Amino acid sequence: MEPRLGPHELLHVFSFLEARDLLCAAQVDKVWNEVSMTKELWRQLCLRRWSSCKGSQMTLGAQTWKQYYLCRSELEFRMESGRPEKDFICKAIAGHEGGIDELAYISTNECRFDGQEKSVVCTVSSDSTVRAWDVQEGTEIWSSPQQPAAVVNLVTYPRLQLVVTADKQGLIKVWKAENGRERASFSLPTFSSALQACDHPEGPFLLVASAEGVLYALTVPQLQLLSRTRVFPSSPTSLLCSPDCQWVFASTQDSDLGPKVFYTRSLLCLLEDDPPVSTTLPVRLTSRACWAPDETARLMVMHRNRNSTRLAVTTCELGARQPREGVDVVVQQIASFLLPDTMMPPHLMKGHGSQVILLVSGSELVLFTIQGLQLAAFQDHQKPITSLWVDQSRVLTASFDLSLRVYVWNKENKIPVLKSCYHLLGGSHRWASGFTHVESDCMSIVGVEARSIGTSILRSYCFNMQHGSDDCVN
């Protein structure tokens, strides 16, 4: 009689197996079945497969690690397949009487399958209201009273359940996400050109850039002034916070004024006569920029090349050096390349991982490495792309052709490979003029569909997740 492996030996062997192999092993006999159910085996499979999804926390609830793995695998399978009715339900959500200017999720991007999962988005509109929507139910949760002016900017703090808005007159307000009650307000002397929500280790704060080129740092939720810094004289300023909120990039588009990088801590603890710690990057005529999401301080900037009129993309690493007095910003250029002269100037730019840049030019989506190697080019849309959304798993594009396109990253390759999967279609071209925005969480996709009469509606695509199916495991 051949010797049989005991539970401890089986557990060691099973630790090298993938999920599908474990499911097969569970069919052998009672002992194999019990060992294959071991909590630590499935926990390690979950951590291995989704370790890079920083924005998506694993929430077990009453589930086991195996149930979590199977449920999340099924959800990803459905989001990659995109079969109408079978994989997702589409709903049109109306309510605003004007056009929707901004869209953001209030709910946290948690993957949970314990019956508590819920997707909630917030919108601001030219009808001067702020509204929250239940994406799965397709219903309005709350609407603010009509504001003094059209509300044009929006950011959210999902962890704190707060919404921050700005209107055309420069009035900034904080709202409670669960009921829409106003928490605080702050008035700018002119309208805001950008808002950035920052969840800093020393406490959350809000950055506001005004149309006159002034950068404000405000506490959250009280909206008390921390600092006021003139960045660019009389120029609308755009802002980007680094993934760890330690750096703030400020630029004014197509200006000969070089973009600036601020050390965040100096904006929060600004002394009366001391300017914040910053540096001006050695590039001019900046048009777009983005941070590398997998790096704490890697910045990619698109700008005009000094020696020609062609566009270039330069990648820098930022650091803080602390001499005896104060802090110095250290900028190290690590890569730069010229965009093809046949390429129309890109109007959208995002980063993926630490090495990949996504650019949208007209109706084309193009991927480059930071060294300039073109990885892929997609021409799936018939009209210009209006919005680009990127995370560790997927890429979404919205277009005036009244469709959203879903792409999926291949996680098995060292160099990321993006696969074009399917279109999500909007309503009738008779009534709609195209999609203007797209956002997503782990279980839904929401687009803003502009109407030909000047209003907008939301179109939600909620992916079915009923149970963890073995057939969806890969």
UniProtKB/TrEMBL annotation:
One of its GO terms (cellular component) is cytoplasm. Keywords: Ubl conjugation pathway. The lineage of its organism: Eukaryota, Metazoa, Chordata, Craniata, Vertebrata. Residues 10-48 form the F-box domain. Pfam families: F-box-like. PANTHER family: EXPRESSED SEQUENCE C85627-RELATED, F-BOX ONLY PROTEIN 3. Pathway: Protein modification; protein ubiquitination. This is F-box domain-containing protein. It comes from Ursus americanus. It comes from the Eukaryota. SUPFAM superfamilies: F-box domain, WD40 repeat-like.
